[in-house]
Amino acid sequence: MPNPFLLRFKEASLQRLQYSPMKLRLFIVLVMALSACTKKTQGEKPVQEKNDATAVSYASSRMTLVGEAQQAALAWEDYQKFMTELANYDHSKPATNRLVELADAMSNTIPSTLAEQPVLSRLVVLRSRIGVYGSVIRNNNLSKNERIIKYNEFVLALDQLHMQLNEKPNYDNKIDDLMNILEGEFAVPADSLAPVN
């Protein structure tokens, strides 16, 4: 005679193994969804963006030098070389390295009329932004958007340098005007210095 305990256990186990039609459908849909998400076709490679600099639309500088700043920049040879190199820039590694070298040279050969701390700071920022963009060029895994963002930061640094160079002569003129005003206010008349008898 079979054990009644085993018979009840067997019946209970069979009941647990039976799936309702709704649970079975849900299980099938879930398995199909998971298999569709992880399925890879053979021979298909992941799509990578080409790292082609000519296919990207880059920003350009919107600031120009005017007045005294423009005259001082015309005599600044390394600045002229930098701007010429930038006009012919092809976004290659060697061209970027040349821009970095010229930015360093600009910091060393800045005319004394422009050599103020704000201008020097803008030159340091410009040089570092060119260096960052150069590292982005060397990294082929970055997207076009990341390259555009870093190049635009470089152009922004150049615009800020131009703004600072344009501001320098105006600042100097304001200081001269202020000094003239102060000299006029505190000038002592010549007859007041005469000795009293």
Write up this protein.
By secondary structure, the protein is mainly alpha-helical. It has a domain at 66-184. The chain contains seven helices and no strands. The longest helix is centred in the C-terminal third of the chain and has 42 residues, at 144-185. Residues 46-51 have low confidence and may be disordered.
SSE pattern = HHHHHHH
Coarse shape: elongated
Q: Got a strand count?
A: 0
Low-confidence stretches: 46-51
Cα(first) to Cα(last) distance is: 149 Å
Number of helices: 7
Strand content: under 5%
Largest beta-sheet details:
none
The structure class reads mainly alpha
Could you estimate the helical fraction of the residues in percent?
Answer: 55-70%
**Average predicted local confidence, pLDDT:** 76
Q: What integer value in Å does the Rg equal?
A: 37 Å
What can be said about this structure in brief?
This protein has 197 residues and is an all-alpha fold. It has seven helices and no strands.
Summarize this structure as a short list of keywords or feature phrases.
66% helix, mainly alpha, 0% strand, 197 residues, 7 helices
SSE topology sketch:
Blueprint: H1 4-17, H2 21-38, H3 67-74, H4 77-87, H5 93-108, H6 117-138, H7 144-185
Helix pairs in contact: 3-7, 4-5, 5-6, 6-7
